[in-house]
Design a protein that fits this description.
about 600 residues, alpha/beta, 8-stranded mixed sheet, about 30% helix, binds S-adenosylmethionine
């Protein structure tokens, strides 16, 4: 298919809607999104009844539906509505949908206007709706009871990258005669790969090629009466084989110990609680206090690399889950021209719209910053700096203030007790390997230091955090008075070192670089008194976190290696661990899950003959 004017270089196309017809129509495909007469009636008949209605999830804790063609989300809303009215209180719904030409939230609102009965849930959907950037987006709805994994891109490559086991399918990709690309043998083969014996399937089409294609990959296909004036539609059951599950799956209600109450542990606790697990959080660790403020801002890298793909998705995911913070927006103003050129290229490769990032020259950057800066760079409207205490409330979680000393399978021991859990998540930063040696593979310890700077005549006007290799924030109230926060140093350290003592010689480093970008700011601080904060972080050689099951340790998972970016990346990584444990769809492409797998360091060593 030819590129169209709605497609940005690394991006995907828009929906190209025609509202003038009786039913919402795609100009690109010359077909309707749903029936003009009764769209909801058709959805309920073809798709919901087609997979067996509420009986399909009766008696199951978790139910996973896959869809080809998200469109306006009508099928999703109708399913969510029925599921919410009929599933048990500990039920969980996963919906995965592939969409190559996403609607905007505004267009969806207009389409949803025809279905006022879904007002409450459709608002939730639109509030979480991602910008039109390619690849996976994982939306946490209804406090985690409903999860929507959107795959923005062409059906076949998106499905190939999906790791999931689907209980029921909706095939809804426009008529095969108008859109054959959605009904190919390759697409059917992926549908089969993601199915298990008994998986249901429903579609509005009864075309011979669809029946034959589904039968060829292992579905038993049956015609049934169509909706309205249409003669027939199809339902099918998968009779083929299934890929073996990689780990036993825990049902809602299972007990999980999370060890460590830093950002990783807290985010894991929230994610697992959302998935229905009974979580106990062990908060006796030793990485010191959280930093007083954190800057959450994108890190751009090529999306073809798992690192770049993960960082991009992790940022947009965190931005949906984090509160607004003290202010919105940040400037990235590297003084080196070649870094700025590379950043712009990355932006194109990522296909990010202006709502996520936009290039600015020195004048525009100075206007946004409130102070004179020497060079331009990128403005990130969704970046923010915030108080970590406000980031991740952990409600409904048992907290034990004991330092864990032993983990053996599901057994957790601490000085005053011992308990058995169905699973354990090691979220103890650099200490994971002390509890389960294999969990420490690839992890080492880094010390980070932040510097507190007093407001000066020039700095008082700084309105946004700026990064330039280091970073400096606007003034903020630390309880002990107003200060700017600059950072951050990054140095390897032994845990036994005197790491908590703030080191004055480190304070000047960010200021040296700042002088190239905003001399007036750095000049005012040269002779100023400075305090600071120091903490420890776990880092990995490839700068990606570790998230997943620990090799050779059944029921033990690790979530660590976040470096200085935990507040940006822990949300997505924790949802990956939850998916692995609960058997939900992996919220990231398979190659990204692979890149974060705890066993990767050992595998690399084996490959290199080490
Ligand atoms: N289920 C939708 C609803 O509830 O509104 C209606 C889906 S509409 C009939 C078909 C959708 O498939 C469109 O949104 C279209 O953009 C998408 N689509 C068509 N061809 C595609 C392809 N090759 N890859 C991904 N999405 C595609």
């Amino acid at each position: 298919m030819a590129e169209d004017e709605n497609t940005s270089p690394g991006g995907i196309g828009g929906a190209d809607l025609d509202w003038s017809e009786q039913a919402l129509t795609s100009r690109r495909f010359g077909d309707v999104y749903f029936s003009a007469a009764d769209g909801l009636g058709e959805t309920r008949h073809v798709f919901l009844d087609g997979i067996g209605g509420a009986d399909a999830w009766a008696g199951r804790g978790r139910f996973t539906v896959g869809e080809l063609g998200f469109g306006t989300g009508l099928n999703f809303l109708a399913l969510w509505d029925l599921w919410a009215r009929t599933a048990g209180s500990d039920g969980r719904l996963d919906f995965i949908s592939v969409e190559g030409y996403p609607l905007t939230a505004e267009d969806m609102a207009r389409a949803h206007g025809a279905f006022p009965e879904f007002d409450v849930i459709s608002r939730q959907l639109r509030a979480a709706w991602p910008d039109r950037t390619p690849e996976f987006h994982h939306l946490v709805l209804d406090g985690g009871r409903v999860r929507l994994t959107l795959l923005f891109g062409p059906a076949l490559p998106m499905l190939r990258d999906l790791r999931a086991q689907v209980d029921a399918w909706f095939l809804d990709g426009f008529a095969p005669s108008k859109n054959p690309g959605m009904w190919t043998d390759g697409v059917f083969a992926q549908v089969a790969r993601l199915s298990k014996p008994g998986t249901a399937l429903a579609t509005f089409s009864s075309a011979g090629a669809v029946r034959r294609g589904l039968a060829a990959v292992g579905f038993q296909v049956e015609k049934r009466p169509g909706f309205g004036g249409k003669r027939e539609c199809l339902r099918a059951r998968y009779n083929g084989t299934a890929e073996p599950a990689s780990a036993p799956v825990l049902a809602p209600g299972a007990s999980v110990a999370v060890i460590g109450a830093g950002i990783a542990g807290r985010v894991a606790a929230r994610s697992l609680t959302g998935a229905g697990m009974a979580v106990t959080l062990f908060a006796g660790g030793g990485a010191g206090d959280a930093p007083p403020r954190v800057l959450v801002s994108p890190r751009l890298a090529h999306p073809a690399d798992p690192y770049g793909a993960f960082m991009a998705q992790a940022f947009t995911h965190a931005a949906r889950l984090l509160p607004a913070g003290e202010n919105m927006g940040a400037l990235h103003l590297p003084p080196e021209e070649d870094t700025r050129v590379r950043d712009r290229r990355r932006l194109d490769q990522l296909g990010w719209p202006e709502a996520l990032a936009r290039p600015v020259d020195a004048d525009a950057a100075s206007d946004l910053a409130g102070v004179q800066v020497a060079n331009g760079g990128l403005y990130f409207p969704e970046a923010r700096f915030l108080d970590p205490a406000a980031c991740v409330p952990v409600d409904g979680v048992e907290v034990i203030a004991g330092r864990v000393t032993a983990v053996d399978g599901g057994r957790v021991g601490w000085p005053s007790g011992e308990r058995r859990f169905d699973a354990v998540v090691l979220a103890a930063g650099p200490w994971c390997g002390e509890l389960v040696p294999a969990a420490g593979a690839g992890l080492s310890t880094n010390r980070g230091q932040l510097t507190y700077l007093p407001p000066t005549e020039a700095s008082k006007h700084l309105r946004l955090p700026i990064s330039f290799g280091g970073h400096v924030t606007p003034q903020t109230d630390l309880g002990t008075g107003l200060a700017h926060i600059a950072g951050s140093s990054y140095a390897p350290v032994e845990i036994s070192d005197d790491w908590q003592a703030v080191k004055p010689n480190y304070h000047l480093r960010p200021l040296e670089k700042l002088a190239q970008v905003a001399l007036a700011l750095s000049d005012g601080w040269r002779a100023a008194p400075m305090g600071g904060w120091a903490g420890l972080r776990a880092v990995t050689p490839d700068h990606l976190p570790v998230a997943g099951q620990v090799c050779g340790a059944d029921g033990v998972y690790v979530l660590s290696g976040f470096g200085s970016r935990g507040y940006q990346t822990a949300f997505l990584a924790a949802d990956m661990v939850t998916a692995a444990m609960a058997g939900g769809p992996m919220p990231v492409p398979g190659r990204v899950a692979e890149a974060l797998s705890p066993g990767r360091f050992q595998e690399r060593q084996n490959r290199n003959g080490g």
